[in-house]
Write a structure and sequence with these properties.
Shape: elongated
Strand order of the largest sheet: 3-2-1-4-5-6-14
Number of helices: 12
Distance between the termini: 73 Å
Order of helices and strands: HHHHEHHEEEHEEHEEEHEHEHEEHEE
């Protein structure tokens, strides 16, 4: 596309004059003959103003079709609403950009979607097996993995900064005077290829607590799964074991934390007077637990926005290299944490 300077040189006027004429500045004193010559030259050189380029961009976006594929079925998402919320925010981002969304589903080891014509790109939400990643890669070159990063060379990805979030949670508890800080969560969670490996939050917890010389293996509780019921049962079992209770727990997810809160309540252990609790994710329910849960907020809207931005950049600019975006977390302090000094 031509530049303003090229048009100015061809017509024999200044760049400022060309810019003002093309943007319909009525205050400029230029003869009609010169204006016509500027418009004709701009058309011949296929120049477009910023406003015209934005209009073209919006028109192009409205023609895009993005496929969304999810790790969990809707029924499975009810156990942990994190991915359900993440999908809804991705849908909202696409709607605001005027992008058509197509649901991609797995059937007989193949990914399919309802409708005619190809999709321009795919946003894959969650974790996927290696063979699933391969199949998706064969379907489309423009793929963004949201909440996993199976291949940094081949695909764009957007992930959470678990280390930052874990350190913020533990810094908060330590600042309140807590030294006996436990961990409750599923030791093994899904990795980037949907295999079971040690949860990143647990790894970060261990590194942090050992660096502070506060580590105690007896305070690390494995829920086996990430449901509220597993959190409840694990906390109940620990309480009944009569092991000395930590003054605080960092819990792997808010969903697990809701079960932990129930177990503590039934055992007449007060939160935060007896035990402080910090969760992770900041799901909507965290504001309405009793007490409201202090938690690490995962900025779902930023995760969704980044994934849509990456897919658009990949499609429109035809970017050939991959990008990985790490979204920082934020500590949200509510009423489930309290100073440890009053606990002794």
């Amino acid at each position: 596309m031509a530049t303003l300077k090229q048009i100015a040189d061809a017509v024999g006027v200044s760049v400022g004059t060309v810019s003002r004429v093309l943007n319909n500045d009525t205050t400029i004193s230029v003869g009609d003959e010169t204006k016509i010559k500027i418009f004709d030259t701009a058309e011949q050189m296929q120049y477009k103003t910023l406003k015209q380029r934005k209009t073209d961009s919006r028109e192009n976006l409205s023609k895009l079709r993005i496929g969304i594929v999810e790790m969990y079925k809707p029924s499975e998402q009810l156990e942990d609403p994190y991915y359900l919320l993440l999908r809804s925010v991705v849908d909202k981002e696409c709607f605001e950009h005027g992008i058509e969304v197509v649901n991609i589903y797995k059937h007989d080891e193949e990914y399919k979607f309802i409708g005619y014509g190809p999709v321009n790109g795919i946003i894959a939400i969650g974790k996927f097996y290696e063979d699933e990643v391969k199949i998706l890669g064969e379907m489309n070159d423009n793929i963004v993995f949201l909440d996993s990063s199976p291949d940094d060379i081949m695909f764009d990805s957007v992930k959470i900064n678990f280390e930052l979030g874990t350190n913020m949670a533990l810094d908060h508890l330590v600042s309140l005077g807590h030294e006996r800080i436990g961990y409750i969560g599923s030791f093994k969670t899904l990795d980037d290829y949907k295999g079971k490996s040690y949860d990143r939050r647990l790894d970060c917890y261990r590194i942090y607590m050992k660096s502070k010389r506060l580590y105690n293996e007896d305070y690390i509780l494995d829920t086996k799964d990430v449901t509220a019921m597993n959190g409840y049962m694990t906390a109940k079992e620990f309480i009944n074991s009569h092991v000395k209770m930590p003054t605080a727990f960092f819990v792997g997810t808010d969903t697990i934390a809701t079960g932990v809160l129930r177990a503590l309540y039934e055992s007449n252990i007060r939160v935060p007077q007896d035990v402080s609790i910090v969760g992770f994710n900041d799901i909507i329910a965290s504001q309405h637990t009793i007490p409201p849960l202090t938690t690490v907020r995962v900025h779902i809207e930023n995760l969704a926005s980044a994934s849509v931005d990456l897919i658009l950049e990949k499609i429109i600019s035809e970017r050939k290299y991959s990008k990985k975006v790490i979204i920082p977390s934020e500590l949200i302090i509510r009423e489930s944490t309290f100073t440890a000094k009053s606990l002794y």
